[in-house]
Amino acid sequence: MLNRKILVVDDLVIIRQATALMLESIGFDADQAASGAQAIEMFKAAKYAAIIMDFNMPQMNGFECTAKIRELERESGSRIPIICMSTGNDAGMKERCLAADLDDFLEKDCGPPELAATLLHWVG
């Protein structure tokens, strides 16, 4: 059976909840993490099809969290798609995401069709 569970990581509860609702509307299940540290613990404990990661979070930003997850993956030999979801007002953000070993970038104000297309590209 295809894994349809996505981990949503954002320090803002309203963004986490809105993203989770959007995911559920397009047929995915969502778990939510309020910080990079919580995301790492949840990643260790469950199997996710993908992670949607905010960049700008306190204590540990999305790039730092991704680096820690990638380190854990090297130990296990697996790899999960990690998609940065952030505001696009920073020129070159998508390129920075790809250079930081994230797999893709979405604007926070994307709609269900764009989110669905991106996830289907990565998780089928």
Which secondary structure elements does this structure contain, and how are they paired or packed?
Elements: E1 5-9, H1 13-25, E2 29-33, H2 36-45, E3 50-53, H3 62-76, E4 82-86, H4 93-99, E5 104-107, H5 112-123
Parallel strand pairs: 1-2, 1-3, 3-4, 4-5
Helix pairs in contact: 2-3
Can you walk through the features of this model?
It is a single chain. The protein has a 5-stranded parallel beta sheet with strand order 2-1-3-4-5, sandwiched between helices. It is an alpha/beta fold. It has one domain (5-123): Rossmann fold. It contains 5 helices and 5 strands. The protein is globular and about 35 Å long.
SSE-based structural type: alpha/beta
What global shape is seen? globular
CATH topology title: Rossmann fold
Number of domains: 1
What's the short story on this structure?
The protein is of the alpha/beta class and 124 residues long. The chain contains 5 helices and 5 strands, in the order βαβαβαβαβα. It has helices spanning 13-25, 36-45, 62-76, 93-99, 112-123; strands spanning 5-9, 29-33, 50-53, 82-86, 104-107.
